[in-house]
Design goal:
- Helices cover about 75% and strands about 0% of the residues.
- It is built from 27 helices and no strands.
- Helix 8 packs antiparallel against helix 10, helix 11 packs antiparallel against helix 12 and helix 22 packs antiparallel against helix 23.
Length: about 500
Amino acid sequence: MAVTPKSNLLELIKSLTTSEKRYLKQFINNSGETKSNHAKLLDAIVKQEVPDEEKLKKKLKNTSIVKQWSRVKNYLYNYILRVLQSYYQQDGEFEVLNNLQQIFILYKKGIFEEAYKLLMKTKYLVSEGSYPTLLPFIADWEMRMGHIAQRYGIEDGVVDFEENNNSAIDIAGNLLEYNKLRVNILSNKTEKGRYLRMKEDNEKVLNEDHFCSLDRAKSPMAKWAFLTTKSLLYGQQGDYLSGFHEAKKCMRLHEEYPLLEKQTPFAYITTINTFAIDAIQTKNWEEIPFIIEKIEAYIQEYKASSVSVLLTSIKYNALLKMSIQQGDYAKGLEYVEAAELFVSKNKHVTNVYVRANLLLHYAAHIYVVNGAYEKALIAIEKLEPIQQIPIYKTATALLKLICLFEQDEILLLPYTLRSVYRDLLNKKDLYGIERIVLNLLKASVKVASKRELAPIFQKYLIKLQAYIAVAPKEELELLDHFNYVAWVESKVIKRPLIALLENDYEQAVAK
């Protein structure tokens, strides 16, 4: 039986970085466990390119491992976690959690004064950093050790434990509330996936008391959740300028509270990513070199880790998106090659970090504009199984149809066209732009010669332009993912699409 991704042990081993594997191997060697069953099983799994339980059992059939299969697997799983705890002992992200363990040990040993001092230091780290939800736990320990502060004169005056508890619960609850709002907004994006379906809900959230003032957020981490959620809400509505200002405030927040970055690098990475997207969307090009420099520095700091993978993905995402926005598709092709190589090398890493669904979408976009339809179809084939966001799915489907049309796939195009039309209709994802483009392709399939195509494209170009002139902004979101109007126009005026888009950008800059 092949090991599925649900296998906890296989998932854990697959996620290990080169540095973590090296540390694990050294730990086993130093412990004199190289001939143990769990060490042999680890070695066998690491050597497999594609994890397969049956092949593992065959390879280890002459050992006692197979007879104790479940026990050895469970032991190895917990063993790896214990070793990783040691590996991350000095990591800034784990400082708070390590401190709490040390506080318990010192308290248990009766070294109360040191335990209390470390508790107060940890309270500061928790309050100013990423873990205010631990404040009630720390408040409980303050009560347990209250007599210590009085005996050793560590605290000035008597601690009001009731007020301390209430404050801790209030600050922790405040952060949980903002985190809940942020998670709900992210879930909404994945489920609904386009401005039209999210606008009303998002406007309602933005007008709630939670977002009336940054002062409503009672800790640095809550302020981060406040600003990132607001930026996300604005972005989902296409109001990138407001989102950009919120993201810029968030960048300043990290400068003011450096513990946020130290304890939770992913929070800082999220901020950089949001700032990069909004800077590109609002054409604040002067910010991009600064962002790329920050990302490169972070990649060097966290190389050989999942953080480095995510940062590299963000870098390519920004570079690809910027080349599209600036109409620099020649430079875009250079970035596409590097991005596709990055995706290929990180097949084993979860898509949450690699974000192949975004990188491959931009790759397909750039290939189509450059007339590399075969390469675009290869990117789309990889993209289709992993793309989850509805608006991106629609854009991908239409790009595929354009590629088939451009390659004169007269047999495959009608079938794919019907399939896409039916799918969008069933999902209630068929809006004006989509309907006009699909009807254009449907009409083009029926013509006997290419000479008959010109009036058809002319007819539908007029329809597109008329629709765009009166349609609400939310119904035009699809054009953010590919300029279908420019593609139709390129057929009418018989100019390469890339020349048309580059000219549009030059005119926009001139204005």
